Amino acid sequence: ETGVTQSPTHLIKTRGQQVTLRCSSQSGHNTVSWYQQALGQGPQFIFQYYREEENGRGNFPPRFSGLQFPNYSSELNVNALELDDSALYLCASSIDRVEGEKLFFGSGTQLSVL
Amino acid sequence: GEDVEQSLFLSVREGDSSVINCTYTDSSSTYLYWYKQEPGAGLQLLTYIFSNMDMKQDQRLTVLLNKKDKHLSLRIADTQTGDSAIYFCAETFSGGYNKLIFGAGTRLAVHP
After folding, report:
1. Exposed e or buried b per residue across A33-48, where buried means at least 16 C-beta atoms within 10 angstroms of its C-beta
2. Cα dist from A107 to A29, B58, B74, B109, whole Å
3. Are A113 and A42 in contact (CB under 8 A)?
């Protein structure tokens, strides 16, 4: 039990739609990161938010965006969904944003795009 | 570049030792990690090692790091059926924020 919860657990969308995935971090964790894990692959870093500001981004297009709120909740938004966006989306929280800070992962949201 | 490579599959008999190998590319990584993922679950941190260490032991787990060859291994002693899962090696990104670069994962199957 990591204390990080994600909702929903499963989601089905069609191509072109928009989706919002939600994450609730542990209290006191000022950093949230999002990862995309395609089938048979390792997680890929999407971006990281620290104190409600994006402070690091992976190789993902601008249609992937995020929000972090003062109450330790956060969102991942994906616009104009594509078939290749089908994946498990993991959020991870940590106390701080520095390299090596322990990450606590949620169980993920499985997104299927048809 | 950013690349972490692992063999995709390992099958062992219950009670034997398992060794999962990984190579990474960023010599500046400060930490290297092993995560476990069971079906339908998120990532569970198993262990980690600082880049200035050669070995770390934690109960049944032994991590060996060869920094010269950028090679990391995880040994699981007395492997049990409950150890069946996907194991991910990950390195930290030395770019000023807390990003992990994962390998594709090694599926460990433990049979009687």
Report:
1. bbbbbeeeebbbbbbb
2. 17, 25, 23, 22
3. no
CB B6 within 8 A of CB B22: yes
Q: Is B83 helix (H, G, I), strand (E, B) or coil?
A: helix
Tens place of pLDDT per residue across chain A (114 aa): 778 999 999 999 999 999 999 999 988 899 999 999 999 999 999 999 999 999 999 999 999 999 999 999 999 999 999 999 999 999 999 988 877 788 999 999 999 999
A105 in reach of chain B (CB within 8 A): yes
- Across the interface, whether the CB atoms of A107 and B100 are under 8 A apart is answered no
- List of chain A residues whose C-beta atoms are within 8 Å of the C-beta of residue B41: 107
